[in-house]
Amino acid sequence: MRNVINFNRKWAFTKMADAVPETMPTKWDFVNLPHSWNAIDGQDGDNDFYRGTCYYAKQFMKASLPTADRYYLEIKGANSSADVYVNGKKLAHHDGGYSTWRVDITEALDVNNLLVIAVDNQANEVVYPQMADFTFYGGIYRDVNIIAVSESHFDLDYYGGSGITVTPVIKDTTASVGVEVFVTNKTDDQVLVYRIKDAEGNVVGTMSSEDTAVTFEIENVHLWHGRKDPYLYTAEVALVEGETVVDAVSARFGCRTFKIDPDNGFILNGEEYPLRGVSRHQDRWGLGNALLPEHHEEDMDLICEMGATTIRLAHYQHDQYFYDLCDERGLVIWAEIPYISKHMPTGRENTISQMKELIVQNYNHPSIVVWGLSNEISIAGSDEDLLENHKILNDLCHEMDPTRLTTIAAVSMCPLTDPYLQIPDVVSYNHYFGWYGGDTSMNGPWFDNFHATYPNIPIGCSEYGCEALNWHSSEPFQGDYTEEYQAYYHEELIKQLFTRKYMWATHVWNMFDFGADARNEGGENGQNHKGLVTFDRKYKKDSFYAYKAWLSDDPFVHICGKRYVDRVEDTTKVTVYSNQPEVELFANGVSLGKQTSDVHFFYFDVPNLGETRLTAVAGECTDESFLRKVEVFNEEYRLKEEGAVLNWFDIDAPEGYFSLNDKMSDIIMNPAGQALFGQLMGGMAGKKAMGFEINESMMAMMGGFTMLRLITLAGGMMDMKFDKEQLLALNAQLNQIKK
Fold this sequence. Notes:
The chain folds into 5 domains: 3-149, Jelly Rolls; 164-253, Sandwich (Immunoglobulin-like); 258-554, TIM Barrel (Alpha-Beta Barrel), CATH 3.20.20; 566-629, Immunoglobulins (Immunoglobulin-like, Sandwich); 645-734, no CATH class. The strands form 13 sheets. An 8-stranded parallel sheet has the order 33-32-31-30-29-28-27-34. A 6-stranded antiparallel sheet has the order 3-2-4-10-7-8, with no helix packed on it. The protein has a 5-stranded mixed sheet with strand order 38-44-43-40-41, with no helix packed on it. Helix 6 (483-497) packs parallel to helix 7 (542-551). The protein is built from 12 helices and 46 strands. The protein is an alpha+beta fold and 739 residues long. The relative contact order is 0.09. It is globular and about 90 Å long.
């Protein structure tokens, strides 16, 4: 019978070695897994996190393992390439940092053994991802196990799979459930015993067979119906010899039907089921990707509290534990590989192997409905090799899994005529109108245009969002990083996207702030701050509650701006979010009136005198906040760049003339401003930001930022810095251009 032995404890680790050790190192650091060597330097900015080869070593006695015929080393995540050595012998190499893989180590074992895993996250042209707006944390950041099995066992060699697939087909109230297993070295005197159990553990079907594929009929089947009813069955299969169970596997599964309709969106079990939710990066402050089960559980609890019905698990395969949580909690999932940003002709085989691993390892999860082929891969345009790569992946997905659809996340600048939009079954776009460029009002009309142009292609929004930290303003504006602007942005996007039923799915970018070491912006370097929740999961930004008001059925009321206490204006605007039909706001016990809203957002004008205790009442729900009148704006609320060479308030901005504080989009609308912008672009020609080549279309996409913000942002992402004198000289030139 199989035994799984966790191998997480006490590994010797070093960045300093240049070869595989012959004996157990005594002067290396000792770490427990999961572990990442970039947990700190991958989150502090300047794009200088360590990328190279590091070594993990562990000594063990064979006698400490259960007696078995064969032993497999199972690695559930090592980023991004790794080599396995046992007693100095190289046994395996693996490319791809986000999937499970295994190595048969049986023949290399001795009485006393030295296991070494060399992990490498340095840049190359073969393994994805190599260019993206997130940190590529190095390390063995998920569990490592030894699996001890008999000579006859369920397969452990095929792309990290479980050795069992379950395929339910629903017709009326009956499910025809196909169960297939893959057995290594099965003998003639061994038989397979199949069993199906319901969620309560009752056996609803059983049979013994020589065949590795059988079918069960479940009458009056209990459907898996998303958040409303995430009902799960379990398939168990035992390999039996006489009275002895030689090996056993199991898989939970859900019985459901779905389709994606270009006019009516996502249909689950014949009912319209709007997919409105978030994207998730897996990393955490101070941990990188080295998460424990409780971290995944906390993430899931927060996503469910918000009321989301879907998660885009970006931009790679996530931990199996989290996919299990998605099944249990009823989230509908977009799963994808890290084929992202930059197409590498030399990386085709890696996209294929990572897609095979994604599908094989996740086939049984009822939560998953689409396989994501790529993300923003056409940012530099589509060529024939890129198109061929996508066609291969698309065909591969349909061949390996005819039960699910394929999708892509296209970048804003990708034209509607790009042929790669015609390859997958459904399409989504990443748009940031209202943050990087344009304004919030452009989002809905853009999707209406796509829907009118391609009425038979289901369209969704795979990314949208804007950044917010603990900065505040009563007059928020695009690009200011205030919590108030982020709240306004999401209010507008919710109203536009959620009311267009044809959109098959919408995914906020992002549920949580995440590590992006190339970013130096917002006053806290090394992060992307578009999350609805902070990197440490300790604070839910106001925009979190805007979504909760639309998506959650749990009654609540929330007063926005709790961190914005000191205010200078005599009358201040206070926003309240609630999923209740009516809200009443009290200031120091005095009612400021009741409001109703069909969009769940309530706006009150509050007299700002002395100290004010606010209380919002919605049905049985209450919430409180506090305001204080001050004469001078509290500078603690104003964005201050970490290590900034020039702040916006130090810039001369004569009335009627441009300055570094003006939006890029406004400046380039002026002929003289456009000429100056051209000169600036000339200085950036050939430069790269986070690996992306800087071009005019990329700069134009950032038109919503001020010139100062854009230069500061670009400077942090490129090997290119602007000193104070250069910025002041540029500002002086802008001061000569009339608006």
